[in-house]
């Protein structure tokens, strides 16, 4: 009797085709949403390259003389801001691909495909997938505005260029702009896998290359 009851309990956990019946649909949907949010958030490091931000944090106090700028300091800092902005835009246009051997190659997106940094000798299997698109220009604008908002919130930049402005304006406006840009980048993520791309998320189904 005991063996029969035990057998009935085991069989009740299976469907007719032999698979365990589980009611985890809601849990699976919840996990998918959480993964999508976390994946999009992790990609924000592509929006502002770490090297650019680190260089900005190091050289800004030096070039602005800790906010006590003269004419030369303003010119030098302005040139550095232009260079940093160009680097942010440049990283947005970088991409990568793997060869049949698994080797990773980086390049920059062009209208004809991807031009690799080794002189363009290596090509992906489908070069058309790596062409420059309008979405790249959109993400480049987001990256540029995000960096300028970040730079505008720096105390040395504030003291150097627009000290007379009210403190509330210089504190709140860059934060609001940065938040809006971050949300847009999460909602409309880039499919580029360029320099700084988190490759641990490369298999994310929501960001497969179209």
Please, could you describe this protein's structure?
- The chain has a domain at 25-93 and 132-189.
- Strands 1-2-3 form a three-stranded antiparallel beta sheet.
- The longest helix has 22 residues, at 71-92.
- The protein has helices at 2-12, 25-42, 44-47, 50-63, 71-92, 134-152, 155-161, 167-187; strands spanning 94-98, 104-110, 113-116.
- It is globular.
- The protein contains eight helices and three strands.
- The protein has 210 residues and is mainly α.
Secondary structure layout:
Blueprint: H1 2-12, H2 25-42, H3 44-47, H4 50-63, H5 71-92, E1 94-98, E2 104-110, E3 113-116, H6 134-152, H7 155-161, H8 167-187
Antiparallel strand pairs: 1-2, 2-3
Helix pairs in contact: 4-5, 5-6, 6-8
Subcellular location: Membrane
Membrane topology: Multi-pass membrane protein
Keywords: Membrane, Transmembrane, Transmembrane helix
Short structural description:
With 210 residues, the chain is mainly alpha-helical. It has a domain of 127 residues.
Throw out a few tags for this protein:
disordered C terminus; globular; three-stranded antiparallel β-sheet; single chain; 210 residues
The arrangement of helices and strands along the chain is HHHHHEEEHHH
Determine the fraction of residues in helical runs and give it as a percent range: 55-70%
Number of strands: 3
Q: Which strand-content bin applies to the residues?
A: 5-15%
Q: Give the CA-based shape.
A: globular
Taking all Cα atoms into account, the compactness measure Rg is: 25 Å
Note the gap between the termini: 59 Å
Question: Which stretches are low in confidence, meaning pLDDT under 50 for 5 or more residues running?
Answer: 4-23, 200-210
Keywords: Membrane, Transmembrane, Transmembrane helix
Membrane topology: Multi-pass membrane protein
Subcellular location: Membrane
Family: Belongs to the plant DMP1 protein family.
């Amino acid at each position: 009797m005991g063996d029969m009851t035990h057998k009935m309990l085991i069989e009740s956990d299976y469907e007719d085709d032999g698979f365990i019946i589980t009611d985890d649909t809601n849990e699976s949907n919840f996990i998918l949403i959480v993964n999508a949010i976390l994946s999009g958030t992790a990609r924000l490091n592509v929006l502002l390259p770490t090297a650019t931000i680190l260089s900005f944090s190091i050289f800004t106090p030096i070039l602005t003389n800790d906010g006590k700028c003269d004419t030369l300091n303003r010119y030098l800092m302005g040139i550095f801001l232009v260079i940093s902005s160009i680097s942010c835009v440049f990283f947005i246009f970088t991409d990568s691909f793997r060869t049949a051997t698994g080797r990773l190659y980086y390049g920059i997106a062009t209208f004809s495909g991807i031009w690799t940094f080794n002189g363009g000798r290596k090509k992906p299997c489908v070069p058309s997938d790596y062409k420059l698109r309008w979405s790249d220009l959109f993400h480049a604008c987001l990256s540029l505005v995000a960096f300028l908002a970040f730079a505008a919130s720096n105390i040395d930049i504030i003291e150097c260029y627009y000290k007379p402005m009210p403190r509330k304006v210089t504190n709140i406006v860059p934060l609001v702009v940065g938040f809006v840009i971050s949300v847009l980048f999460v909602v409309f993520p880039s499919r580029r896998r360029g320099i700084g791309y988190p490759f641990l998320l490369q298999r994310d189904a929501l960001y497969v290359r179209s």
